[in-house]
Design brief:
There is one protein chain. By secondary structure, the protein is mainly β. The chain folds into five domains: 81 residues, Immunoglobulin-like, CATH 2.60.40; 107 residues, Immunoglobulins (Immunoglobulin-like, Sandwich), CATH 2.60.40; 109 residues, Immunoglobulin-like (Sandwich), CATH 2.60.40; 113 residues, Immunoglobulin-like (Sandwich), CATH 2.60.40.10; 131 residues, Immunoglobulins (Immunoglobulin-like, Sandwich). Helix content is 4%, strand content 51%. The strands form ten sheets. Strands 2-9-8-4-5 form a five-stranded mixed beta sheet, with no helix packed on it. It has a five-stranded mixed beta sheet with strand order 11-18-17-13-15, with no helix packed on it. It is elongated, with a radius of gyration of 54 Å. 23% of the residues are buried.
């Protein structure tokens, strides 16, 4: 009897020792050792180290590389309300309900990072003597619960056929704030049938702990093709005995069914697109990285991706298509295409089409086109840009039949050198060169190099067609050049060439000039004759001479002078110096552009010195033939002047 009592006592002691130890207001538990972590420590320290129980306060976490996913937990108490300040600081609120004692302080992000950073001590407040003791309230229940999730799963084989057995492996993760007691993983069946035991007892699953459970299943023979859901029931208790259930489903793809149509299809989408470099320049190579995800209900196989626009981008090496063998349901693959950006005229955010083609296991083909955004810089930072800065013609006044020299100043205002430059007058092939004809050379000028910021001067001699119309002619100039990558650039700029009609006037004396002697007045009768093929709109006739004193007799001709018509100009002249004197008639007229132009005609007269008078310089008159004074010509009568004007109007001369 005594031996039985002793054995019973030993069993009771062993059971008591196997029970989990909880911290109450009267006891403490040694802080848990630091959990293994795949990340380096990011917490340097925390403060303060001591709080007064019943008061609480704010706990400050100091470190480097802190994230907004991190939370602070007191070991054997639970999660604290945590606020993310920046990468170097977190704050956590310690409630006044935490009992006195020592608590391990853990920082976790719910994933791979979980670190014990120190011990926080909560001391009991100093009791204040009161007349009567207040009744002690029961301690509040601790917050938190275990949360069980399936973090990862595998199905072997990946595609299941009707009647086939397969194996499912799930990774269970406790993401809660309490350990899971009496944890269970149950495969209740339904669409798929469990083979063997369908429940798995996991006992205790600590916070942030994981465990892998494997279950063999069988697909019914009557199941159809497509994706079907396999049910998994997770449940656990907390240390207070509360039960929590977490239902989950796992997709399983069934193929090869003899009856029933295939349900669902794969759907590949571009979830992310990046370029290196981020800002692209036309003609420069870059790499395009695409993150492809299958968000459909079937596996995508033989996945091909390429840029749909050959003008926007061309392959930098190899082909323009990349390949991935398969993308499972909710699977992700990353592919990279080496490309060269084409000739893009517009900068900023541009759309680039991407062609996707893939199949499913039933042999069905799927193709579509999706667009991504790229950033393009078309500024002239590294590109050459040629412009015709200025141009001149010599002479300035160009008329049909004239020969002129066209001079252009070509400037490179871009950021790169322009090589193998050709300047084609009249555009490609000189098709628009008329009415100008190049002389002594062709219409194309070649320059080997125009550096960035450099200006070169180019000239070409041209002839204006004699039948050219008097107007502004547009002369296209085609510029073609290579950049540093030997990419050929071509553009056309235009010049305005003004062709005016030059009047053809002829000046002559319609009556022999009087004998011109110094200081003796005389008459000059000049006639302007239009020998051209078009009328001249005369606005003014101005006689000029530096050796003759001139005065117009009557009103000079003003108005249109038709071809073959003449205009008389009568002048009273007093010579100032002996010798040959020039008489210049400056004729102002309006051209075809309604602008006033001036043309001049020059005549010469001979001026003789005054003869000596008889008896000296004070004689009464100069000697003439036979010692008599020269006879003066009789003055012209009014009828003689009218007759001469009528002859000029009829084109019959003076």
């Amino acid at each position: 009897m005594k031996r039985s009592v002793v054995l019973l006592g030993l069993v009771v002691c062993l059971l008591v020792l196997s029970l989990p130890l909880e911290i109450g207001a009267q006891g403490e538990e040694t802080p848990e050792p630091t959990a293994s972590s795949t990340l380096a420590s990011v917490v340097d320290d925390f403060e303060p180290k001591t709080f007064v129980s019943g008061v609480g306060g704010t706990l400050s976490i100091i470190g480097k590389g802190l994230t907004s996913d991190m939370v602070v937990r007191l070991v054997n108490y639970g999660l604290l309300t945590t606020s993310y300040i920046n990468e170097g600081a977190l704050t956590a609120q310690v409630p006044p309900t935490v009992p006195p004692g020592s608590y391990g302080v853990r920082v976790t992000d719910g994933g791979a990072y979980d670190e014990l950073v120190g011990t926080l001590t909560l001391i009991a407040p100093t009791p204040t003597p009161k007349p009567t003791a207040a009744p002690t309230a029961p301690p509040p229940a601790r917050p938190g619960q275990p949360i069980l999730t399936i973090r990862n799963y595998t199905v072997t084989p990946e595609q299941v056929r009707p009647g086939q057995e397969f194996e499912v492996a799930i990774e269970i993760y406790n993401n809660g704030s309490r350990a899971g007691e009496n944890t269970l993983a149950i495969f209740p069946g339904g669409t798929f049938l469990p083979v063997g035991e369908k429940g798995h007892q996991l006992w205790q699953l600590h916070i942030n702990a994981t465990v892998v459970v494997t279950q063999k299943m069988r697909a019914p023979s009557s199941i159809g093709n497509g994706v079907h859901q396999l049910s998994v029931q997770l449940e656990a208790n907390d240390w207070e005995g509360n039960n929590y259930k977490f239902p989950h489903t796992i997709p399983v793809e069934v193929i090869g069914a003899s009856t029933g149509e295939v349900t669902g299809r794969p759907k590949v989408v571009i979830e992310r697109a990046e370029t290196e470099p981020a800002m692209l320049v036309p003609g420069e190579p870059f790499s395009l990285t695409l993150r492809l995800a299958n968000r459909g209900s079937r596996t995508a196989v033989n996945v091909f991706a390429s840029v749909a626009s050959s003008e926007l981008a061309i392959p930098a090496s190899g082909g323009d298509t990349v390949y991935a063998d398969l993308i499972r349901i909710d699977g992700v693959v990353t592919i990279t295409l080496p490309l060269v950006l084409g000739s893009v005229d517009s900068g900023g955010r541009q759309s680039m089409p991407i062609a996707l083609a893939y199949s499913d296991y039933s042999g069905g083909g799927h193709s579509e086109q999706q667009a991504i955004g790229i950033d393009v810089n078309t500024s002239l930072v590294r590109q050459p840009q040629l412009i015709i800065e200025t141009y001149t013609t010599m002479p300035d006044f160009i008329a049909p039949g004239d020969t002129l020299t066209l001079t252009m100043r070509l400037a490179n205002v871009g950021g790169g050198d322009a090589e193998r430059v050709t300047v084609a007058l009249g555009g490609e092939g000189g098709a628009a060169l008329a009415p100008f004809v190049p002389l002594k050379a062709g219409n194309v000028i070649f320059v080997d190099l125009i550096a960035a910021g450099e200006v070169v001067e180019l000239s070409r001699e041209l002839l204006v067609d004699g039948a050219a119309d008097a107007k502004a002619h547009t002369l296209p100039i085609q510029l073609a050049y290579d950049d540093a990558r030997s990419t050929r650039h071509q553009e056309t700029q235009r010049l305005s060439m003004i062709v005016r009609r030059r009047p053809e006037l002829q000046a002559s004396f319609y009556r022999p000039p009087d004998l011109m002697m110094v200081d003796m007045p005389g008459m000059l009768s000049v006639e302007l004759l239009n020998v051209g093929r078009s009328a001249v709109n005369i606005t003014e006739i101005m006689p000029l001479s530096d050796r003759l004193e001139l005065r117009l007799e009557g009103l000079p001709f003003v108005g249109p002078l038709d071809p073959g018509g003449s205009a008389p100009v009568d002048l009273s002249v007093t010579p100032l110096e002996p010798g040959e004197a020039e008489l210049v008639l400056a004729v102002s007229y309006r051209d075809d552009f309604n602008q006033v132009q001036v043309i001049s005609q020059t005549l010469t007269v001979e001026v003789q010195s005054a003869p000596e008078m008889p008896g000296g310089v004070d004689g009464p008159y100069p000697e003439g033939p036979g010692g008599r004074p020269p006879e003066e010509a009789p003055p012209e009568t009014l009828w003689q002047k009218l007759g001469r004007a009528l002859k000029g109007f009829l084109g019959l001369g003076s």
